[in-house]
Task: inverse folding
């Protein structure tokens, strides 16, 4: 269940450790409060879809800000409940993309609600559990997003066109980074945070970034100090599966993982996972026939 977020986004490792320890001992009398770190905008967008409801009540996953990572916050909580575990989640908002893996490895974070590429995490199996896929291999298409000013002027019909442009991504996202590196753009620029990428692209300082498709045209993302839009007619294939990861070192890690696996199987059988991604626009029929700009590289 979602609770209000903590305001201090700079929670220290020591404080996280104390909270983990406190909640472990408190579980003897009541369901534990589990602290989850989450991007501030993702938390806010999730509240829009929930509209005061419990995540377990959500059956319609559509909405203006119903993007992939928002939908997964809800799906994971549904899976855990269906799997038979009762946890109360308290969210700490901030910029945690680059920290969460380390916190999971240390046992200071129980679970990451944002799915991760298998190729990014399979080497970490000494410290983490890896769930069944939420997004299976071959299901992930990304749009090429640019600024409002450039969306109608940038023409990308081939790899050669894309190679003339600057692109930003995160080198710690191996699937994205490897895919873009193979394309050999004019310049590939590392940024740690997604929001920082969006702002740089929105300002026109960098031409392109990758992002999932939203639920309806014009495909766009908008937040504080940025707005980016997808270039019509082209998409990129990111050929890997995405999974939820759970810490093996957290006191509730094994029990949480077992419940998650059970719940994901139920959601898959019911068709809820596919429906959620379809309603959000992530699985998007509107781009089914768009040109795959890197199609010739998929078998490399």
Result:
């Amino acid at each position: 269940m979602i609770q209000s977020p903590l305001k201090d986004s700079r929670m220290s490792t020591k404080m996280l450790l104390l909270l983990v320890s406190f909640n472990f001992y408190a579980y003897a009398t009541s369901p534990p409060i589990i602290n989850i770190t989450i991007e501030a905008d993702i938390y806010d967008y999730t509240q829009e879809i929930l509209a005061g409801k419990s995540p377990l009540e959500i059956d319609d996953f559509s909405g203006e800000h119903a993007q992939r990572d928002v939908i997964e916050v809800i799906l994971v909580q549904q899976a855990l409940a269906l799997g038979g575990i009762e946890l109360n989640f308290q969210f700490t908002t901030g910029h945690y993309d680059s920290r969460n893996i380390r916190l999971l490895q240390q046992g200071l974070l129980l679970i990451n609600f944002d799915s991760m590429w298998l190729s990014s995490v399979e080497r970490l199996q000494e410290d983490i559990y890896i769930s069944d896929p939420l997004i299976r291999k071959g299901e992930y298409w990304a749009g090429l997003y640019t600024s409002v000013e450039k969306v109608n002027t940038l023409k990308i019909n081939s790899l050669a066109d894309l190679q003339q442009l600057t692109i930003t991504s995160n080198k710690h996202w191996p699937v994205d980074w490897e895919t873009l590196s193979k394309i050999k753009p004019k310049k590939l620029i590392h940024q740690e945070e997604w929001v920082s990428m969006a702002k740089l692209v929105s300002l026109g300082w960098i031409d392109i970034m990758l992002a999932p498709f939203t639920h309806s045209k014009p495909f766009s993302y908008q937040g504080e100090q940025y707005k980016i839009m997808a270039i019509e007619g082209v998409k990129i294939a990111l050929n890997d599966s995405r999974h939820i990861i759970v810490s093996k070192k957290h006191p509730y890690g094994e029990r949480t993982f077992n419940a998650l696996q059970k719940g994901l199987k139920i959601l898959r059988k019911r068709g809820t996972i596919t429906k959620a991604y379809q309603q959000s626009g992530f699985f998007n029929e509107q781009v089914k026939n768009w040109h795959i700009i890197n199609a010739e590289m998929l078998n490399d």
